[in-house]
Design brief:
The complex is a heterodimer. Helices cover 11% and strands 41% of the residues of chain A. By secondary structure, chain A is mainly β. In chain B, 11% of the residues lie in helices and 30% in strands. Classes of the chains: A mainly beta, B mainly beta.
């Protein structure tokens, strides 16, 4: 029986109040005394809050001076000396064979980001967590010990896993309390790049470093085609000011409207990521977006790029692209050919929005610098790279589902939100501002208003328009073997429409169409973004029994209610 | 009429800046999505400046160009859209002329000739700008037969509309079209 929305939210939040013990009021006050108000001298924050950095072009709304979120601030490790914690290590590869066991801690670590030494979290003391590698079809065991003072779980994202080990508190397991452990048995039926992260206060725990990849290798050595090397890129951001990370909300997330955008961008946990390759190398990049809210548009400095695979499979056909758009929780596998010697900047290249001026403007953030040496690579793969492979096996597998493509949807979802008790200037401003909303929120254009919106004031909604049920009250029951077509409409007619990366647990789906335009090149997905105003048709193969979640993968949206459970019998 | 004069004055001020090849047309009755997002559909408003077009009604539907990522964005982060124009009451162009479709940035700093639209047929083009105008003008076909396409229109504007993103100017005025009455352009009626 699926838990109700309130019950699930309560469970997801459970144990967080205990974490308040980590907050030392004296330390908070000391922090306040020392805060840098250079950007907004008129701001007098209270209760330990610091205002997030703002673009000075954005005027402060009258009436918001001194306003802070309605929840208490939460900064894990506040008052602790980071020097007392072990320094986190970069991610290490952990090859595992069928039946192998990995003991993995969830612990506090010391990390330095953007010049700030911080108390953060780590899986096995690493950032990102260990890169677990397992052969397709195997079962690997991960024994998790929780050494932080918050309950946690691990969700093995995208894997059609045994339901008992899906890591959803209140649905598939009890949260792992401080000092407790849990043993996950992970079946990996599909080759590809997956990732793991907590399903308890993701907005905090994931942001503080709890994420890692799980690479499932195919027995076919030619599964992806040839490349000279492979690189794993975990894309993330962190919201920081001159003192370090901006606190999170204690009892509920802040930034509930747009999600917590960071202003410091990272690859594999570092802000100065670099690579060195030989001229002519074909590099395979495994991209994973672990940011709370940010959708990236990853560019490769003009180098030739082709997209090969995404969440749960390869594409029917490889395809040339100029950039890779990757929403939170998505993964893409792309091959990049570095033909010319010199420096190539891998960047996040977006058209940011200035709502005050009503303009788009170019914003380019460096993610990694690639030095392409003069020396040519010994194994020239130019010809192989130029070939766009067709994957007959992927097409053949999808063929079995084509009879369902054109039929009417089985279920209709619309995304919207309700707000209550937001400060009046925010309400008035938003009502005026949302005459037009871009389909994707690429940046935090309203950092003050976003920061002040908490999950206690904002309820993001998935509504089943066939029944009127919302979020946890939605009841969908299926059987193994069902093929279910779901139409998701992201209505622009709401207080603040925003894109949503929709994630389905335990199953895989095809994005059949966007706005009625048929998708000509399919790939099995577990997460897909629905832009504002758009309608996305997905076809879910119900292949895995159990109770599962469907939710928005913007952490703050999920914690603001944007989720429900469905059951698959059999 | 004052509005039109202002618009042409702006065009003249900007001169014959060659349009960047980001927009391309595919004239004729192309098959396109029957249910584009209503929110991003915008009205094409007649200028009533060409005889026979006073009752012309039209709309521009906007959909994402296909991409493997669902959303279609260029390397600089601009959205890439397919734009589909349909009209009721578009007559045969007078004086042996042709109805030419143009896509421009909303500040007219870049203009792209998209093709010719025939009465009774739909028109599809592609645009790589976040904010844009769709414009139909009456042109001499000889002026359109320029290698690489004409840089600017010469004839009178028959109908025009602005992408929904053009509404995103509410907190700081109207930019270069500040003298314009937004409601008269068809996008002042709220979200």
């Amino acid at each position: 029986m699926a838990a109700g929305a309130e019950g699930m939210r309560a469970r997801l939040m459970c144990g967080i109040a205990a974490s308040a013990l980590l907050l030392a009021p004296a330390a908070v006050r000391a922090q306040m005394d020392g805060m840098d108000h250079s950007a907004h001298m008129h701001m007098e924050m209270s209760g330990g809050w610091r205002m997030p950095p703002m673009d000075m072009e954005m005027p402060m709304l009258p009436g918001l001076d001194g306003v802070v979120p309605v929840v208490e601030p939460f900064m894990p490790g506040m008052g602790m000396d980071p020097a007392t914690l072990p320094e986190a290590r970069p991610s290490e590869l952990v090859p595992m064979a069928d039946g192998d066991t990995l003991a993995m801690s969830v612990s506090m670590v010391r990390r330095t980001i953007n010049g700030h030494e911080m108390v953060m979290f780590g899986y096995d003391g690493q950032y990102p967590g260990p890169l677990i590698q397992a052969p397709q079809g195997s079962t690997v065991v991960v024994r998790v010990v929780n050494e932080i003072q918050m309950p946690t779980t691990i969700h093995w994202h995208g894997i059609r896993i045994d339901n008992r080990f899906d890591g959803v508190p209140g649905l598939t397991q009890d949260p792992i309390g401080p000092g407790e452990s849990f043993v996950y048995e992970i079946d990996v039926p599909d080759a590809g790049m997956y990732w793991y992260h907590p399903h308890v206060r993701e907005d905090v725990q994931q942001d503080l470093g709890l994420f890692g990849n799980l690479l499932v290798t195919s027995p076919d050595p030619d599964y992806y085609g040839p490349a000279n090397r492979e690189e794993v890129f975990v894309l993330d951001d962190m919201l920081m000011d001159a003192q370090g990370a901006i606190p999170w909300g204690l009892d509920a997330p802040t930034h509930a409207l747009m999600g917590r955008f960071g202003n410091v961008l990272m690859v594999n946990g570092v802000t100065d990521h670099q690579l060195e390759v030989e001229r002519g190398e074909v590099v395979r990049f495994y991209l994973t977006n672990v940011a709370n809210s940010r959708t990236f548009n990853v560019t490769f400095g003009g180098a030739a790029v082709k997209v090969v695979a995404s969440d749960v499979s390869r594409y029917e056909r490889e395809q040339r692209v100029e950039s890779v758009i990757i929403a939170p929780a998505e993964r893409y596998v792309v091959d990049v050919h570095f033909e010319e010697a010199g420096e190539v900047v891998i960047a996040n290249s977006i058209q940011a929005v200035n709502h005050f001026r009503g303009t788009f403007y170019s914003k380019v953030d460096t993610l990694s610098r690639v030095t392409v040496q003069e020396r040519a690579v010994a194994d020239d793969l130019s010809a192989e790279f130029a070939t766009l492979r067709e994957h007959d096996d992927v097409q053949a597998e999808i063929d079995a589902f084509r009879e369902h493509f054109d039929r009417e949807p089985d279920h209709h979802l619309v995304t919207t939100l309700r707000v209550r008790d937001l400060p009046l200037p925010i309400v008035q401003s938003m009502e005026m501002d949302t005459l037009y909303v871009p389909p994707i929120e690429w940046n935090d254009a309203m950092p003050m208003m976003n920061w002040l919106s908490t999950a206690e004031q904002v309820e993001w909604i998935l509504r089943d328009t066939d029944t009127g049920a919302e979020n946890g009250d939605i009841q969908w029951d299926f059987e193994v073997g069902d093929v279910v077509k779901v139409r998701v409409f992201n209505t622009p007619d709401s207080f603040h429409p925003m894109n949503h990366p929709i994630h389905v647990h335990g199953q895989r789906f095809l994005v059949l169409s966007m706005d009625g335009v048929e998708n000509p090149n399919l790939v099995w997905k577990d997460t897909a973004i629905v832009p504002v105003g758009s309608t996305m048709d997905i076809l879910i193969e119900m292949s895995n029994p159990g109770d599962w979640m469907l939710h928005c993968h913007i952490a703050e949206h999920m914690h603001s209610g944007m989720m429900f459970n469905f059951s698959v019998g059999g | 009429m004052t509005r039109l004069a202002g618009l042409f004055a702006l065009v003249l001020l900007l001169g014959s800046h060659p349009g960047r090849a980001v927009a391309a047309g595919a004239g004729g009755g192309t098959c396109w999505n029957p249910e584009p997002p209503e929110y991003y559909t915008f009205e094409m408003v007649t200028t009533k400046n060409v005889p026979g077009t006073a009752r012309l009604r039209g709309s521009a539907a906007v959909t994402f160009v296909h991409s493997p990522f669902g959303v279609s964005v260029s390397a600089d982060g601009s959205y890439t859209y397919d734009v589909h124009l349909e009209f009721e009451g578009l007559p045969t162009a007078p004086r042996g002329g042709a109805w030419a479709v143009w896509l421009t940035k909303s500040d007219l700093s870049e203009v792209s000739y998209a093709g010719v639209i025939e009465p009774g047929e739909a028109f599809s083009g592609r645009v790589g700008w976040n904010k844009f105008l769709a414009i139909v003008t009456l042109e001499d076909p000889a002026d359109l037969a320029v290698e690489g396409g004409p840089a600017r229109w010469r004839g009178p504007v028959v109908t025009r509309g602005m992408s929904r993103s053009g509404m995103m100017h509410t907190m700081a005025g109207h930019g270069p079209l500040q003298q314009e009455n937004c409601a008269a352009w068809g996008y002042g009626r709220g979200g």
